[in-house]
Design a protein that fits this description.
The protein is mostly helical. The protein is 71% helix and 3% strand. A two-stranded antiparallel ribbon has the order 1-2. The longest helix has 32 residues.
Length: 317
């Protein structure tokens, strides 16, 4: 899809402007994000993504429009699994609810840069070595099957990540929270707070998440503009989606197997991309929606048996 460099600039300015509004107005003071506020921001980003997709559809045709909506929906649905990880990180570190929003918004900024780099590398690799799509496809099938059979209880404690353990050893850390600050200066020396370690965990989880999600959107399209914009809208909505779903995500126990099925399906779609059995984006979009709806309804109709350990508690409303 041919897009003027000026439009890239306009798109970046609009996104950065929305982030500036969030940081300058809604995140100026640390506060516990209410369900209403989170739902409003989720609606704002979903509306913006829908309007953008309609613009692509009208300006560049049905095929490109379907590619955007398919990529956006897959990226957003995979984000739901990341919500569980975010909740796990905040619970394990005991992060006060009023500080969680700031960690996520700065995590979003870093994630945007990370995605831009990874997508650029991916596009260049595919242009030079097209056969790498088959590796991506096989990887997605493997990851999807693994998710289908995995259990939520098997999630690894993010605080035990080697990078986090190394950071704790080499960085001067304050013993307690210092408001919502990531670091302070004491006696002319910079000291990092536990909130900075939490931010590292969030970044690591997003990097791991990107390893699955970026190859998945390559299974839909190799158009760099659509890949990046669908990722941006999904990531920008992820922060507010966390505050909407964190309190109930553990109840949707069929969602993770559903996401595994979607990943495996996209992997198969990628593997069949240059055969007579190529899967169209219309069917792919319908399949993704059907699996997500079935996973959510199935979780509500057949609830998971509760255990004494409780679940992952979300932020207070």
């Amino acid at each position: 899809m041919s897009v003027s460099p000026i439009f890239w600039i306009v798109f970046a300015v609009v996104v950065l402007g929305m982030i500036a509004i969030d940081l300058g107005i809604f995140t100026r003071k640390s506060h516990t994000v209410s369900f209403r506020e989170a739902l409003t921001w989720t609606g704002v980003w979903a509306t913006l993504a829908t309007c953008f997709g309609i613009w692509i559809w009208n300006s560049h045709g049905q095929t490109k429009g379907l590619e955007f909506f398919n990529g956006y929906l897959i990226e957003l649905s995979l984000s739901a699994d990341n919500v569980f990880i975010f909740a796990l990180i905040f619970r394990n570190f005991g992060v006060p609810p009023q500080y969680q929003h700031k960690v996520l918004i700065w995590g979003v900024l870093s994630a945007l840069v990370m995605r831009f780099i990874l997508i650029g590398i991916g596009v260049q690799l595919i242009n030079q070595f097209y056969w790498i799509l088959y590796i991506f496809g096989a990887f997605l099938v493997y990851t999807g099957v693994k998710m289908l059979w995995s259990r939520s209880e098997e999630e690894e404690d993010p605080s035990n990540n080697p990078v986090v353990r190394y950071a704790r050893r080499v960085l001067p850390l304050t013993p307690t929270w210092v408001g919502d600050r990531f670091w302070i200066t004491e006696n002319g020396k910079r000291c990092f707070t536990p909130l900075f370690i939490v931010l590292i965990c969030i970044e690591i989880s997003d990097l791991i998440f990107a390893v699955d999600s970026i190859p998945a959107v390559f299974g839909i399209t190799q158009d760099q503009f659509i890949i990046f914009t669908s990722n941006v809208f999904a990531i920008m909505g992820l922060r507010s989606l966390y505050f909407v779903l964190s309190g109930v995500i553990d109840k949707f126990h069929y969602l993770k197997p559903g996401l595994g099925l979607i990943l495996a399906f996209v992997g198969v779609k990628m593997l069949l991309g240059h055969t007579d059995y190529k899967i169209g984006n219309e069917f792919s979009l319908a399949f993704t929606i059907l699996v997500l709806v079935a996973s959510i309804i199935g979780s509500m109709v057949f609830p998971k048996a509760t255990s004494g350990s409780g679940g992952i508690s979300g932020p207070e409303a």
